[in-house]
Amino acid sequence: MTLRLSAPPPQAAASTQGRKAVSGGTVLLRKLSALVAVTALLLWAVRRALPAGSDLVNWGGLALLDDLAATVLRPSLEPDFLQVVLEATATTLALALLGTAGALVLGLVGGLILSDVAWGDAPPWPVRVGRLVLRGVLVAVRSVHELVWALLFVSVLGLDPLVAVLALTLPFGAQSAQVFGETFDSVPDAPLRALRTAGARPFSALAYALLPGTAPLLLSYSFYRFECALRSAVVLGVAGVGGLGFELTVSLQSRNWGEVWTLVATLLALAGVVELWSNRVRSDVAVVTCADWSVGHERPREAGQSAKGQAAKGQAAKGQAPKGRSPDGLSRSTRWSLMLVLPTVVLAWWWVGLSPAGLTSPRTHELTAQLIGDMWPPELPDGGMRVLADATFDTLAMAVLAMVVAVVITLLVGPWASRPRADRRGPAAWGRWTAWWVSRLLLLVLRSIPPTVWAVVALLALFPGVLPGALALGLYTGGVLGRLVAEAWETMDLRPRDSLRDSGVPRVVAAVASVAPPSANHLLTYTLYRFEICVRDTAIVGVVGAAGLGRLLSERLGAFDFSVVTSVLLASLLVSLTVECVGRRLRRALRT
Amino acid sequence: MPQRPIGRRGLLLGAGATLLLSACGSGSGSGAGADARPLGIAAIPDQDPELLGRLYPAVAKRFADATGLDVVYRPVTDYTAVVRAFEIGDVHLAWMGGLTGVQARERRPGSTALAQRDIDADFRSLFIAHSSAGLRPFTTMDGLRGLAGHTLTFGSETSTSGRLMPEYFMRQAGLKTSALRGTAGFSGSHDATIELVASGSFETGAVNEQVWKSTVAAGDVDESKVAVLWRTPGYADYHWLARPDLDKTFGDGTSEKVLDLLLGLDHRDAEDAELLKLFGAKSFVRTRNSAYDQIEDVARDLGLLR
After folding, report:
1. Closest CA in chain B for residue A564
2. Which residue of B has its CA nearest to A59?
3. 3-state SS class at A546
4. What pLDDT, on the 0 to 100 scale, is given for residue A405?
5. Contact (CB<8Å) A350/B306
6. How far is A217 from chain B (nearest CA, A)?
């Protein structure tokens, strides 16, 4: 459940400018064919999820759903259990923090290697080949879900907190490296050239020329990454180090719903606090919304003064360094957050008893060699290619339907979840603010409850198959997508609407004509991004949904059939790659 | 992570402190040496996992008292992870199911089954059904064929009583899983199986008899909605499994001491009785690897053992 970051790719801007002009007819044709393709995909997914002649809704289970709703009001509040929850919360926070820290280190190093700016104009060919390989490795690393990483790491490291930290660090680090690389490339490289020409050493030149310009973006991204790590840490219960994920799995397995709801409430509170804090820090470093990582900075109320608004939309930050403030301009809370980062990491380190010794021990080497030997060469599961292809298509259908659910949620809730503009007054404004709070809370609830819990609930209402998995993932993804899109909508420039209105166009027409196209663009970009993540996340709901690659994966892991596990992982890598390439093409075809 | 507001000195100090701390951490780790490594115990998370969470710290304490060693319980929520931890030596003594025990022995040859509960030599699974399925209880294995055309959920994938043996008996009766309606589900635990069948999400399910009994006794199941269809023949299930290097690592006689403790548990003694009650047993008895030969054959047959 990584939020793979969430920013439209900056290189888009460069290519827009450099691209040769296309006629209106071609654009229309492209849009039409993309529309047909998407419709066909949806129809296919629905057909696959709903085999003819089977029941859809489990009316018998609905009664239990009712009982379940009643238990929400009776969470377990036993002192013993609350003590356990408190400790688990600390562990989860510590794991998320350490995982994020590791990911950021990986991301910085990887990002520098991947960025063009760090290498100058013409990197030597070994570097170019190396970067190509690295890019491939990074895609492969992040196409595997954290939970699967954790299971693999348990095999070589044993029951060690390092398992949970590494399971977060690797996929998040791979993701961060890509985002950081793009960020580095998006700032002007003149200062760097100047420093290098003046004789500065490569490392100092990079540190002094690149970091100041990109720091606000990186900082904002880092805090956001921590929010994501927190959500992911919750699914990792296998490492034997406790934490909320462990407690949740335990309570869920024994169907102690009172405890499940206590844990969910804790998650909710934790996620709420972390997000508020992260928002505060991010708004302080001038990068408010997630969209800002690539479109630069803009606060709604400043929209009038800032000319950056709409111009920034399609154009990435290239040549438009975000308005970084001087360190002294940071608020007290941000300064304290930054000062506390290192001590907190140390504290977290001590709390979970992390020791890197596991990485270098001879046992680890031996077990790694053994695991690789077990995993290679890959073998097909019983039933051969057909079984694997079936599972792959189920996974794809599940992800497509999940995105449908998520987009519907976003369309229904998203508009209310965008921060109200400050220009309204009176009772209408109060109503709007209330709607804002309610919808933000709703989205928070949707994304704070892990998909595994949603899946168990969905299975009470729906018969097993692709559908409950899709619903569970869709509810969760809806919470994430709704928030991302709502925040992107906040940054939208309203001056076109105002001009239309001022020139006498009716309010509704003005709003639809000026606001709809850019809104749709944001929605589309984030939907494609989340779709890629959704494909990966099917691994964890596949089990309950009794469908897809996730099902196959957990079954083969249970039988220690690692050679088949490899082919399942390869299949999901293939899906990830395909989705990423197709997504890129679609974005290009539909770009306004 | 960019650290702009922190001065260079602060950064260096912080980094130094981190290094020092991690050095201390690894220092104490290696200083303790392999001999002082605590004896790890674990259990497959197949019965009420919360109960396990209460039970095993108590077991660890009794083991520690009996052996004079430092014993820690390593909680794990995943069957596969328990076997893996046992295989690589993070866990030296584990409460395994029939199948997980066989898997662990396959991956770490020379491991020995020490003891099982009095009920484990003749363990049973139950097939249960929701009232709406319209299925009547039956007395012979052939009755399983009546499940064709209905939905069914197993427990965890590598559960002996929740998956392996029920599927084996289904095969014996000539009922293929493909004859069921939809694919067979895997609920993840026995409690979950009972809930899913009680809710009607699945018409039928296969469940551990002991868990079913305790759930019924606790009044947690509506017996007007769920009924037992059939009780399977007996098979060997849960047992304590010891790694081959247990005595070598922790001193000769360690496994003897553990075995003596387990076999000596007496339900007339208050403290012992509490432990036995948590295990749902009256006593522990000696067992050996060969008791699980049938499980091993079935596991190979079903592709759960390579």
Report:
1. B306
2. B200
3. coil
4. 96
5. no
6. 10
Average predicted confidence (pLDDT) for chain A: 80
Q: For the purposes of burial, counting CB atoms within 10 Å of the CB of A260, is it exposed (0-12), middle (13-18) or buried (19 or more)?
A: buried
Contacts of A246 in chain B (CB under 8 A): 75, 77
Nearest to A363 among B88, B198, B200 (CB): B88
Is B183's Cβ below 8 Å from some Cβ in A? yes
Give residue A189's pLDDT: 78
The domain B39-120+237-301 is placed in CATH, from the list 3.30.70.1320, 3.40.190.10, 2.115.10.20, 3.50.4.10, at 3.40.190.10
Read off the pLDDT of residues B56-106 as tens digits, 9 standing for 90 and up.
888 899 999 988 899 998 888 788 888 988 998 889 999 999 999 999 999
**Does the pLDDT of residue B17 top 60, yes or no?**
no
Residue among B30, B89, B200 whose CB faces A60 most closely: B200
Residues in B touching A353 (Cβ below 8 Å):
25
CA distance B143 to chain A (A): 25
Q: What is the pLDDT of residue B28?
A: 39
pLDDT tens sequence across A296-339 = 333 333 333 333 333 333 333 333 333 444 444 567 777 888 88
DSSP letters, chain B, are ---TTS-HHHHHHHHHHHHHHHHHHHHHHHHHTTTTPPEEEEE-TTS-HHHHHHHHHHHHHHHHHHH-S-EEE---S-HHHHHHHHHHTS-SEEEE-HHHHHHHHHHSTT-EE-EEETTGGGB-EEEEEEGGG-PPP-SSGGGGGGGTTS-EEESSTT-IIIIIHHHHHHHHHT--GGGSSSPPEE-SSHHHHHHHHHHTSSSEEEEEHHHHHHHHHTT-S-TTTEEEEEEPPPB---EEEE-TTHHHHH-TTHHHHHHHHHHH--TTSHHHHHHHHHHT-S-EEE--GGGGHHHHHHHHHTTS--
Which domains are present in chain A?
A: 83-297+318-361 (1.10.3720.10), 384-590 (1.10.3720.10)
Is B124-231 the same fold as B39-120+237-301? yes
> Model ipTM?
0.78
Percentage of residues in chain A with pLDDT exceeding 90? 21
Most confident of A186-190, A395-399, B50-54: A395-399
A543 Cβ under 8 Å from any chain B Cβ: yes
Domain boundary assignment for chain B: 39-120+237-301, 124-231
**Is B92 at the interface with chain A, CB within 8 A?**
no
Q: Does domain B124-231 have CATH number 3.40.1160.10?
A: no
